[in-house]
Design a protein that fits this description.
Shape: globular
Number of helices: 12
Distance between the termini: 13 Å
Structural class: mainly alpha
Oligomer: single chain
Largest sheet: 2 strands, antiparallel
Strand order of the largest sheet: 1-2
């Protein structure tokens, strides 16, 4: 279920939907500059290696970040003369337009507009005013931007954005789930598992609060979102547990003398392909219709499709209001 934006979007003029940053020309090809023997490693904030990258990927990422910085500068100049109320309204209108792009599966354009929204954050007011800005603008924009980055495949950026969202609400279920999902997709199960467990705990807690709330449409919609999110969290927690069991079994077989002989029939029974999964939303949605056990089987039994965009619900039921 994807919640509708709060109101109809505004015209896609420069004033209402942000600014197009100029594309940067690549003066030098990184692959030629770095040479064939260059090894690029991605690290987290603690300098732990979490994966590799090709020179072309590194070049594209740097160019994208430079273009984003130029765009942000243009937005900052635009809102510089606005008061707090005008900034807030400008950003909210922009967020509605971004929601429309997201629902149309134009994730790159949506991400640009969500980034533009963050430029209007103004925390120079009273604590009460700052809390309102954080709740109405910073938190939903960050979780929506993280959803876009998941669809695009920028998982490191997802972690960064979710960290920002969690600085506003440390128990936000969508931020915890999306950060856990990004870490899962990067193969970092050790950090994904506690994120997903924390998301599950918060879902239970917040759903209990909603059950006590008045039985209006908004409360019912929120409970439905939390129910769907819970099912998805269970799928990934189950998959991580299964993967851990498979890894322990493989380690145990390493000490089994019978597996030391490559010509034995069972020598290739634990190939790397058997550990790859199809966690696309098409597979999960189909499996969820048959229950969580069926979803876990789907995740455990197929190679993940490449370049297949996930469905809207992958990131937790689309956009936040």
């Amino acid at each position: 279920m994807t919640p509708q934006p709060d109101a109809e979007g505004q015209d896609a003029s420069e004033e209402n939907v942000g600014f197009e940053g100029g594309e940067l020309e690549a003066e030098t090809n990184f692959a030629d500059l770095l040479g064939p023997d260059c090894v690029i490693r991605r690290v987290d904030k603690d300098r732990n290696v979490i994966g590799g990258a090709k020179p072309q990927e590194m070049q594209q990422e740097l160019m994208t970040r430079a273009s984003a910085q130029k765009r942000i500068g243009a937005c900052a100049e635009h809102v510089a003369g606005m008061n707090r109320t005008d900034k807030m309204q400008w950003a909210l209108d922009l967020k509605e337009k971004a929601n429309e792009f997201y629902m149309a599966r134009n994730f790159e354009e949506a991400a640009k507009l969500y980034n533009d929204c963050l430029v209007a954050l103004d925390f120079e007011g009273s604590p009460e005013e700052n809390a309102t800005i954080a709740a109405k603008l910073q938190l939903p924009v960050c979780t929506n931007l993280a959803a876009c980055m998941i669809e695009i495949g920028s998982y490191m950026r997802v972690v960064e954005i979710c960290d920002l969202a969690l600085s506003v609400d440390s128990g936000c279920p969508k931020a915890l789930y999306r950060r856990g999902l990004a870490r899962y997709r990067m193969g970092d199960h050790a950090q994904a598992f506690p994120d997903l467990e924390a998301a599950l705990s918060q879902i239970h807690e917040r759903r209990g609060v909603k059950m006590l709330a008045s039985d209006d449409k908004e409360a019912a919609a929120t409970r439905a979102i939390l129910d769907d999110l819970e099912r998805r969290v269970h799928v990934y927690l189950t998959r991580i547990r299964q993967f851990g069991a498979q890894e322990r079994a493989r380690c145990q077989r390493m000490f089994d003398k019978s597996t030391l002989y490559a010509d034995r029939p069972d020598a290739g029974s634990a190939s790397p392909e058997s550990l790859q999964v199809d966690d696309s939303d098409e597979a999960i949605d189909a499996a969820l219709a048959g229950g969580e056990q069926a979803a876990a089987v789907v995740l455990g039994g197929a190679v993940r499709k490449k370049n297949l965009p996930d469905g809207l619900a992958t990131c937790g039921n689309g956009t936040d209001k």
